[in-house]
Amino acid sequence: MPPAPTLAPPPSAGPSANPSVAVAVDPARGLLRLTVRGLLTEEVLDRFERELDAARRTMQARGASPDWARVLVDARGSGVQTRAAADRLRARMTGFHAPGRRLAFLVPNGSVLRLQLGRLAEGEQFAFFGQEADALGWLFAPEP
Fold first, then answer.
1. Does position 21 have pLDDT exceeding 80, yes or no?
2. pTM score, two decimals?
């Protein structure tokens, strides 16, 4: 089976960059990609929620399930978030669920961010990766 195509990531940015959460969807594969940059503010989280709602409508309009079975979170340009931001992200992410959903997190090696993201994904199948190709391979691997 040929490798799945990748969604182009935004330019690299470090945790001190302007905060943002970019939302991209691949309806054909049921893939949601979130790219987190910087320390998230209430304004950024408000915009993220609007974009996530729009992405769900796009999925439904194309006949795909709005409950993503595969989620790729690129947090390589992010830092540990405030408790309020992390709680809000968790509440939003648990607002939808697909059977067998997998969450793949791209994080710097040895990052303390892994602890926070692990709490965000509690109760889900999730794994951490340093490389996008490895994350996508895991996301689309057959269930054991």
1. yes
2. 0.78
